[in-house]
Amino acid sequence: MRFKKYEGYLFISPWIIGFFVFTIAPLVFAFYVGLTEWDTFNKPKFVGLDNYAALFKDEDFIKALWVTVKFAAISVPLGIATSMLIAILVNTKVKGVYFFRTALYLPAVVSGVSISLLWKWILDKDFGLINLLLSKLGIPPIGWLTDPAFVMPSYLMIVIWGAGGGMLTYLAGLQDIPKHLYEAAEIDGANGFRKFRHITLPMLSPVIFYNLIMGIVGAMRKFGDAYIIGGAGNEGRFYMIYLYENAFKYFKMGYATAMAWILFVIILILTLLAFKSSSAWVYYESEVKPRARKGR
Amino acid sequence: MTSYAMGKKQRRIARTAMLYVLLGLFSLSTLFPLLWMISTSLKSGDLIFEIPPRFWPDGFHWENYSRAVTEINFFVLFKNTAVITFFHLLSDVFVSAFVAYGFARFHFPGKNIWFLLVLSTIMLPGEVTMIPVFIGFSEIGWVNSILPLVVPGFFGGAPVFIFLLRQFFLSIPKELEESATIDGANSFTIFWRIFLPLSVPALITIAIFSFQGSWNDLLGPLIYLNDEDKFTLTLGLSMFKGIMKVEWGPLMAGSILALLPVLIVFFLAQRHFVEGVKLSGIKG
Question: Tell me, what's the ipTM?
Answer without folding.
Answer: 0.88
